């Protein structure tokens, strides 16, 4: 068994954080799904920029689209919608076999709408209708406007992948918005058993921001936290998830067939070469979770990763680590807001580059 496939029996789904026309048409995507037990696919503007700018399979179609009276965004969508549909078709058997738990392909709403709830809702519904696949997930950022949109989109029966969560405020708002959306469906007499969502906590960016602050403080207590904050926050978030979705608040919805909004670990490629190159995968394996992993990190785990239940080990230490962070004067909630703002800008910048490519 592949070392990656060995994660699946432990209750965690590994999704591939990459998508391109070449990956689909070459059969490589289907091969990875089969050999490594990959259960889904995620994309973002940076991934599509890389794909469209480097994959020759787009060249002819883009040239034809540039002859038409279309906006750059319309050309971008005309290029990627068939890819999303094809990817959904490749993963559809997983969706069917898991009764909708996995087999998803995720597409981002326009990053220009991150602070526009009405625009996000309209954009998400339009993309959902255009792609027309039950195993599509629409990605919406965990901004204040995004949270409003999430509730409405869940109430409308769409599958949602919430992105750019960095602190417990984001976690609280997103998970409760999902529950309110399901409650609205129930109140309207609509079924809830087919609606699925994930809530994505981003990891490597956390340690990249916090580590230099710990080094500046320089005490043994501070230095011991280097490379530990993102993983500690994940463990704390997971405890929060379990209390909510295995508690009384969700019980009535669960009785009606509703699915919990699984936690997803994103940005899981290690940036600091001083740390294990698979730590955001190997150290966070646990049930009812998803980890979306880039190709390079998958290759590393395939080579020397170890699949073991690790997510629920060291939870007390994780809680203590977050307390030490506060004691050191580092306000993690504020850091999370900064990280979300920076993440939004990165996605927005990538989207601008993407539209320049299709202009």
From TrEMBL:
InterPro entries xrefs: Aldolase_TIM, TAL/FSA, Transaldolase_2, Transaldolase_AS
Main location: cytoplasm
EC number(s) stated in the UniProt entry for this protein: 2.2.1.2
UniProt GO MF annotations: transaldolase activity
Active site (record annotation): 139
UniProt pathway: Carbohydrate degradation; pentose phosphate pathway; D-glyceraldehyde 3-phosphate and beta-D-fructose 6-phosphate from D-ribose 5-phosphate and D-xylulose 5-phosphate (non-oxidative stage): step 2/3
GO cellular component terms given for this protein: cytoplasm
GO biological process, one term: pentose-phosphate shunt
Cross-referenced Gene3D superfamilies: Aldolase class I
HAMAP family xrefs: Transaldolase_2 (MF_00493)
Function in brief: Transaldolase is important for the balance of metabolites in the pentose-phosphate pathway.
NCBIfam families to which the protein is assigned, alphabetical: PRK03343.1 (NF002881), tal_mycobact (TIGR00876)
Protein name as annotated: Transaldolase
Organism: Iodobacter fluviatilis
Phylogenetic placement of the source organism: Bacteria, Pseudomonadati, Pseudomonadota, Betaproteobacteria, Neisseriales
